[in-house]
Amino acid sequence: MSRDKSKLLYAETHEWVDVSDEGGQKIATIGISDFAIEQLNDLVYMDLPEVGKTFDSGEEFGEVESVKAVSPLYCPVAGEIVEVHADLPDNLDGLNDDPYDFGWVIKIKVSDDSGLASLMDYPTYQKQCAESA
Amino acid sequence: MSQAEASSLAHTPLDRWHRDAGAKMVPFAGYEMPIEYGSIVDEHQACRTKAALFDVSHMGRLRFDGDGAAELLDRLLTRRVIDLPVGGVRYAMVCNQDGGILDDVLVSHLKTPSDQYYYLLVVNASNRQKIVEWIKQQLDDFPTVTFTDRTELTAMIAVQGPLAMETCRKLFSFDPARLKYYQATITDQFSKPAIVSRTGYTGEDGFELVVRAEEANRIWENIMLAGRDAGFAPAGLGARDTLRMEAAMPLYGHELNESTDPISAGLSFACNLNDRDFLGRDAIAKIKTAGPKRRRVGLLPEGRRPAREGCDVIGADGKVVGTITSGGPSPTLGKPIAMAMVDVEVADQTEFEIDIRGKRSAAVATKLPFYRRAKTDS
């Protein structure tokens, strides 16, 4: 599997979203963009939720910490967590090196896909990053 | 940050160099300063194993000339200055009448090549204006003292790490090894006068240089070039913070502030209460006699989750007994470290909990500092 970052959707808060259809059910795989990881630098800790928890879109679902600061992770779409990348907190170098494949963070069964409409496509997200850099 | 805020920020003479080197610049104490050039951890390790170069030009540099300068400083500082020999550097605090810490400072007694004697006070960037005002309030009683704020005319560079001495020996026209820890001299070795002191804020051996603003880039580049093969790296405020935390050096605005006194902060060594009167002396003496209400302690949070400033420290009975003042991952130890101010009744306990944004983590008390370099020479 190799995700093409130019085909993903992005939240203003730098999470990426890859939506797939699994038997009529939308599953969103969520991660952190390479831009955000580059900005965070020197990752040291990650706090992730449990499978089965539900989140609204925009709600905080976890934290990632760098040497300098704590950054909340926000859920870009509403739904229930169906899978958590449990190895990730012990492999933050892997997240750093490969944020789009190895570095996926959670998978969510989308309960309300209205949140998807407010996400950005890659060119729009790139523009946001260029403005904030 | 608005454009108005951005444009009101000051820039050090090395600003262009930092930007060209790819530094991430952040607002800090009225200046735009480099926080990192790529990786805080790499910069931290360079300082611990080789050497790192820091632009600390944002620190305030205040000069006192003339008769009575020592007497003025004796009134301002928690340690006596009048017996400070030429070439001596002393760590002290400036306190208000209640014993609250207005700033922690370094005072140096210097002699110029033309035999002028003066004192230099290095103050925290965030406190510079406050301290300047505080000094001005005292000046009327010392009409022969000339007080000048030299901050903007000069730059300050710190070179810190086990290889700092070796490299500076090649660069300087005098042997810097003749300076002992906490000694300073004025040298003309960069063809212009520069103050070199064997001081620092990282727990490593090294030097701090005060140079003319227009010489800053040349001197910075000379040291970078001389140390290039040895692995010298420029380091930003991020690494400076992790380094000083490991060395358990207090930072103003974190361990120290106006509602903390030097005794509670664990800095009674930097207060001489019995040799003269000074601003805040009586209040500090009372606290010393009665015993402080809080004490600074070192904590090792279990696991990998760092406890940050502001987290509550919980005692054995489940009650809040203190606050984390500085905390984060220690690159040298490979685990989180934290300093906290806790109620004196529990300050000798060994086990605590820390409330890290709603989740409890266990932590054990540890002796400070977290890191101490292996001593090689004086």
UniProtKB/TrEMBL annotation, chain A:
InterPro entries: 2-oxoA_DH_lipoyl-BS, Biotin_lipoyl, GCV_H, GCV_H/Fam206, GCV_H_sub, Single_hybrid_motif. It holds the Pfam family GCV_H. Residues 27-109 form the Lipoyl-binding domain. CDD domains: GCS_H (cd06848). Its cofactor is (R)-lipoate. Binds 1 lipoyl cofactor covalently. The modification N6-lipoyllysine is found at K68. SUPFAM superfamilies: Single hybrid motif. Keywords: Lipoyl. The glycine cleavage system is composed of four proteins: P, T, L and H. Belongs to the GcvH family. HAMAP family: GcvH (MF_00272). The glycine cleavage system catalyzes the degradation of glycine. The H protein shuttles the methylamine group of glycine from the P protein to the T protein. PANTHER family: GLYCINE CLEAVAGE SYSTEM H PROTEIN (PTHR11715), GLYCINE CLEAVAGE SYSTEM H PROTEIN-RELATED (PTHR11715:SF3). This is Glycine cleavage system H protein. The lineage of its organism: Bacteria, Pseudomonadati, Planctomycetota, Planctomycetia, Pirellulales. The gene is gcvH.
Automatic annotation (TrEMBL), chain B:
One of its GO terms (molecular function) is aminomethyltransferase activity. It holds the Pfam family GCV_T_C. It catalyses: N(6)-[(R)-S(8)-aminomethyldihydrolipoyl]-L-lysyl-[protein] + (6S)-5,6,7,8-tetrahydrofolate = N(6)-[(R)-dihydrolipoyl]-L-lysyl-[protein] + (6R)-5,10-methylene-5,6,7,8-tetrahydrofolate + NH4(+). Its EC number is 2.1.2.10. Transmembrane segments: none annotated. Keywords: Aminotransferase, Transferase. Gene3D superfamilies: Aminomethyltransferase beta-barrel domains, Aminomethyltransferase fragment, Probable tRNA modification gtpase trme, domain 1. Residues 294-371 form the Aminomethyltransferase C-terminal domain. Residues 15-274 form the GCVT N-terminal domain. It comes from the Bacteria. The keyword Transferase applies. The glycine cleavage system catalyzes the degradation of glycine. The glycine cleavage system is composed of four proteins: P, T, L and H. Belongs to the GcvT family. PANTHER family: AMINOMETHYLTRANSFERASE, AMINOMETHYLTRANSFERASE, MITOCHONDRIAL. This is Aminomethyltransferase. It comes from Roseiconus lacunae.
